[in-house]
Batch of 2 targets.
Target 1
Amino acid sequence: MSTVKRINRFSLIEMLAVIGLVGILMNMALLFYYKSQKINSKYTDKAVQIKSVSVVSKYLRSFVHGNGETFMVKPDKVVFNNGSVIAMDNNRLVFTAGGVDKSFALPKGFAVTFALENSQGEPPRIVMNVNMLNSKDQLQLNKYTRIAACVEGGAQ
Amino acid sequence: MKTEKQFHLRFYLMPEMIFALGLLMILTVCFFATTNTIQRMDKSFTDESCGLMVVDNTLERLEHKKQYNVEDVKRIFLDEYEKSGIKDRTKMLAGFTPKPDGAMLAIVKNNGKPLIEVQIKCQQ
């Protein structure tokens, strides 16, 4: 009685096909994971941005109304005649009045710029644009939310 | 006594292969469809947030004017709409309707439904 052992032998083509398929599947899994993480992080930040805008707009307006006329408005800083300051500091929006700081953390991927606008027959207003940043941390000038706050006591 | 061990090759049938590939494709399509939906949803929320800010900024500017009439309301509202940038990146429109005792401001979504409507009492 003979003992016969038959062993499955895969051809080189089959082995390469299996390796290739496993590679493709692993890459797809990695891609799905990476994309999901990226989307999740991006939209969490955007949701925070929408929420931040609603919170910051109220605070900005009451701060601007309460501090009177502005002395200087730069893209990253607003200084009022009474010494109060609104400034960006490492992705935090800092409101300083009477030596007391209050700061709002902005979501990652967003930045704030300020501008002073004047229109005929209206008081001057401080405009804060909450801009999105691109992957190189540059402002995306077409993607922003605009918040206007009128300066109390400004000439009409 | 069985001394012979037989190893059988296991083949997959064509229907099994087709089913597995079909399942993989469905999962892939579902993944990208969900991603796409989330992106559209997010864009819609962002646009709506900007649309609301247009009306909010208009009201802020009107609140600080000593007097205003329908023409002032229209000018300020359209100015805010222009400067908000939503005109370029969305299909939302600004609607202004004069009323007997004031004006109606509206931001209209691309499906024709208003996102927000505000009635303001003012002089003609």
Target 2
Amino acid sequence: MAYKYCTATNWGKNFFTHEERKQFHLSGHAGDVWVVGDNLYGDQWIGKVSGAIKSKSEAQAIVTAEIEAAQAAYDALSAEEQSRQSRPAIYNLP
Amino acid sequence: MSKYKEIKGFKVQTLASDTAAPARNLGQVYFNSGSNAFKVTQQLAPTGTWSSGGALNTARYSAGGSGTQTAGLMAGGTPPGTLDNSEEYNGTSWAEGNNLVTGTQWFSMTGTQTATIGAGGFTPSITTNAQAYNGTSWTEVNNLNLARYGMGCFGISTSAIVAGGANPGTSPERRAETESWNGTCWSEVADLNEVKHSLGRAGLTGTAGLVMGGDPTTANTEVWNGTSWTEVANMNLARGTLTGNGTSTLALATGGSAATGIQATNESWNGTSWTELADLATARYNIQGSTFNSSNTAALVFGGLNPGGVQSATEEWNVPLTNKTITVS
């Protein structure tokens, strides 16, 4: 499946609708990065949310930087607090 | 003596046209006099999707969640520290409600927006504390017998169950104990078959419920019949720190953390088995939900944690309902 990548801030209700979720792939990631199915409906959604188009490598860099910041925050927690959550792990966007 | 209804059955309703509010007619057979056809309102479960809802005012995880998709409630959680504020959802946006008496994270909550009971968690130390909400304010009520966090919790403020959980100060740390709330006090009842914490849950009363998943990572599902727990079919994906929704026969299990990472996975329970349906848009664990929905056709999830940090996003689950013609040959 082909994807497009953008950044957009989720404003809440109707940022994405049930109908849109049926029409194209959509997944949200750290740093307000969205992976969007590459079809007409996905393009229309990116326009609706005023998404800033990114290349895959640009989007991955944003996600990785956010996760590295989250890892630093996790490492600063007490051992007890760390035991209640997982250390954020860097992953690759689809 | 038999009643007329038991001998002759129920009258089938006649409607001039298909019902405009199918959600109220789910499972009902009726006669459409316009098209001269018997019809039934069905749920098209595989076509359900998540849409975005109003964002929380305070992003958080490990909070308590209760209520319905259009009247939700969230309280406590973290960060920073141990939060005491609560928020109410009206189907569109979250508004601040009155604070908990005692700020709590890993708070196990169940009920409606106007009749919720919550118990256990960290305040910041592990606690037996329990608090009830009447739609306006929180009050302290009688404590649990066993301090713990991450219990499966279902029911309402007059009849509820908490099960499982963990207490770092006890041995074993992970627990199988179940406690029943009768509106006044907690009493110990039959244990879960498996020790676990951070489990999902579903159920509208303390006499019929479901728990699924949990840590250590399990796909196990157990049904509560008011007296004892029975193991039933496993979820397709073992995971903990997920949220549940619905009843013991129609439920959802959403999000969580699995061996393969943080999940957007969403599974539907039909009383017999689990089926994977459409994923959340944003994967997360330590997620909360308004679980007091009477079916698996409507749900609300919010907050949680993922590699990007603490979440404020809300997502709403809906399954289209349709009126189908009954064909006989």
